[in-house]
Specification:
alpha/beta; nine-stranded mixed beta sheet; 8 helices; 24% strand
Amino acid sequence: MRSLRRQRPTACDPAPSRWAWRMQRLMLTPTFLFMLRAGVPMMLTFTAAGWYLSDEGRRQAIHETVAEARASFETRPEFMVQLMAIDGVDTALADDIREVVPLDFPISSFDLDLQDIRRTVAALDPVHSASVRIRPGGVLQVDVTPRTPIAIWRSKDGLSLVDITGTHVGTLNKRMERPDLMLIAGEGAQPHVKEALDLYRAAAPLGGRLRGVVRMGERRWDIVLDRNQRILLPEIGAVEALERVIALDGAQDILARDVVRVDMRLGARPTVQMSEQATALWWEIKQISGQ
């Protein structure tokens, strides 16, 4: 009876296998999904691009195409600069600027380095500051603030124009080309132009007798007058010492006499040196009076 009984089949296990379960869990991971959806296409794209660009001819063709497109865009009329305008300077300095900034117009604005042009112009001695921009209409506008020469500095190299800071502005062939400027000389005079200017203004009562201001020992000044006269000023309080000499000259006409120099270096004991002829005459008069 048992053998004739029909055996009931065993039911199949509905649970997935271990690897199937892990794959299902992996497919639910956001990172894996992102890599599957974006990473694989990107990798395939880069692989295809790398294979395509591995050929030298293709790379050269792409480079030439990009260069032509860029050149066609940059040379459009609205981007072209036709000329350079320079304002704020005289003709000579404008010519110098055009010489140091040699541009072949018309030129694309993309080929102009405005900062480099500004630095080049500002590096010129007569230029205090400069600004560079491109004006509408294709004009390269250069606005320059020039240095103002305030004095003539006489050195072993000749005559130079300097501004209030002592910066070189230009050269001068003859002193009489700028009679309106004071003359300074001596080693170390250039950085102290402002001090010399104060002395020059204080010496205004001397009028046309003033010839120049000389820096002595890189620490003090001498006032040079006509007839080879000198006023030796102290290192400190030079303007006040000069004003004392001018006041003394106004009261006693000391500078109108046969005086070689007035030494004010010792404020408590100023001294006056007579010329050799005046000294000899004084001794002769003294001897006669003594007889």
